[in-house]
Structure formats: structure tokens, C-alpha cells
Amino acid sequence: MSTQRTHAVTLLAGDGIGPEVTEATVRVLAAAGVAIEWDRVEAGGDVVAKYGTPVPESALQSIRRRGLALKGPITTPVGEGFRSANVTLRQNLDLYACLRPVKSIPGLPTRFEGVDLIIVRENTEDLYSGLEHRVCPGVVESIKVITERACLRIAKFAFRMALQRGRKKITAVHKANIMKLSDGLFLECCRRIARDHRDIEYGEVIVDNCAMQLVRDPTQFDVLLLENLYGDILSDLCAGLVGGLGVVPGANIGDEVAVFEAVHGSAPDIAGKRLANPTALILSAVEMLHHVGESEAGERIERAVHAVLGEPQLRTRDLGGKATTDEFTESVIERLG
Ligand code: NAI
Ligand code: MG
Asked: Does position 337 have pLDDT exceeding 90, yes or no?
């Protein structure tokens, strides 16, 4: 059984399918006997009118105080409107490392078998700087910001994580043939940290070739180390290799705080229909349990999720099944053992 410790965790339900998948995850954690005291806070598009921002200071404070949060997806308006709540959170809490384990799920057949890679994405800068302006009518600039400080710390994070998790090889993904200064600096920092870790193999690949290599043979990669935008794009690609966005978990990690969330977004096309696959957020919570030393409960939940995914008729619609979010959740709870 799990330890008797109660964990204080901030819960951001998000919007779209967020409330459905967070509710499912909270139920699974409770059924697994993990003692969590949730602080439910408001964030997202719905609160902009009330607070003038999608991420009110009260939400940030709750997360800072607890050091831990579980988060559902939050919609970001396209082309106009408020700044992404997700980017705001990551930058305000300095959640500089985004970690996404992409693993084939036993019993869930997909195009590839034996995929087991980890994406490490820099989470605070790059083209996500939000620095955009109109130079003159018909001409705009978006500024890609790359700093030595952020590159060094994400590279250090990747090598440290690789050592902790027994990974053998790190591949830095870049476009330094074109962006010689920005991606050049990123590579220079990765190489510097690689020199301090001779026990881990280090390689580099240009991002477009990386995309091709991933869809041809993803098993050739171990840890992928990327800047923010390439990390975002290749995360979704990698999710597609192992069953889609419904199954890939993630974590945003800083020195003081960690926020666990799936790779996927708010899925407006299926929101409110009880069709969402909660696997990705449940597995994000499993990552959270490992993070707080509740690995036994985490492994038990993961085994239950895999057992359900192994039965075609119990899967949700994104995986070809017919189960609703609630039915899937019930099946997981029944198999917790
Ligand atoms: P999305 O990830 O929400 O959806 C892409 C496709 O995958 C849709 O067809 C959706 O139905 C499906 N899908 C995603 N998660 C699923 C799940 N758990 N179960 C079953 N099917 C699932 O990406 P999209 O449509 O590009 O973005 C929608 C909104 O989400 C946008 O406003 C975007 O900014 C936001 N977003 C938020 C993120 C976050 O909060 N961390 C991350 C990514 C996007
Ligand atoms: Mg994304």
C-alpha cells in the first residue's frame, strides 16, 4: 500500500476535455489509496473577464506553495486574444524542463513496437518569447530568443535525468545549418554538457531529418533534447507513434515546482461528450507519483491502465473502442488490485 503521507497538490481542471480527464484521474488516484489534498484553482479562458489574465495570481500562489500541480489542458485562442495560459504558467513558475516519455503500451497494437524514448523540451524561450511586432504593413517579426543560461540548464537537466533513468544516449535536435546563431548556441551548450558526461552517448540530428527518422524507425532514439518549438511539434508526432495524444503523459519541471499534464490540448471537437481518453492524464499523474516517492502506487495504476488498454472493447474511441471516459475509468479502478 502507499505511504500514509498526504500530498498537497494544486488541481487545474482546465477547459474543453480538461474537467472530464482530471475528474477521471482524481478518481483513479483516490481508488489507488493515494492520500492527496487537492486545492482546486481557477485558470483558463473563462476567468480572463474576472481576473484580466487566464492565470490569476491566486493559482500561481497555490502551485508555488505546494510545489506540485496536476493540470488539464487550457484552450488558447488562435491569432488573437489572451496570451497562452500554458506559456504563462511555464514562464511564471520557471518550469524550464518539459519531460515527455513516449512508450509503446503493451497490448495496444500500433505501427511500431518497442518505442521507448523520452522527449526533453526547453520550456521557457525560443519563438514562445511572445515578442512579435508589425514592422510595416504586410511585414511582421517574431523573435526567437535563445540564451546560454536556458540552453545549459536544459542540457544539464537532460543528462541528469538520463543518468537517473538509466538512459544511454541523448540526441540534440536542431536547425543550426539555417539558424546558425540561435540553434548554434543551443548545440554549443549541449556539447559542453555532453563533454562532462562521457558515459552517455551524445549525437545531433537536424530537425526535419529527425521527423523523417522518427516515422521510419523511432526505436533508434533514446532521449531527444530539443528547443521549445521543435519539442512541441515532435511531441505530437511521437504521440502518434504509440497510439496518439490520448496516451502520452508529460511533466513541466522547475527547480522548485512541477506541473504534470498530458501532451494533448483541450480537444474541442470531443469536449463534453464523455469520449476523451483519460490515459494521458492518468499516466501524467503516475509520473507525479514517482516524483513524490509514491512509486508503488504509480506502478499499480500504470499496470491497471495497461491491462484495460489491452482489451480492445474497453478502449476509448480514439483507440478504436467504444468506452466512454467514465467506463474506461471504472475499468481501470476495477483492475487496481
Ligand atoms: P488537441 O490535442 O486538443 O487535439 C488534437 C486531436 O487529438 C483532436 O482530434 C482531439 O479530439 C484528439 N485528442 C486530444 N486529446 C485526446 C484525448 N485525451 N482523448 C481522445 N482524443 C484526444 O490539439 P488542438 O486541437 O490543436 O488544440 C486544441 C486547443 O488546445 C488549442 O486551443 C490549443 O492551444 C490547446 N492546447 C493546450 C495544451 C495545454 O493545455 N497544455 C496543449 C496543446 C494544445
Ligand atoms: Mg503541443
From this structure: no
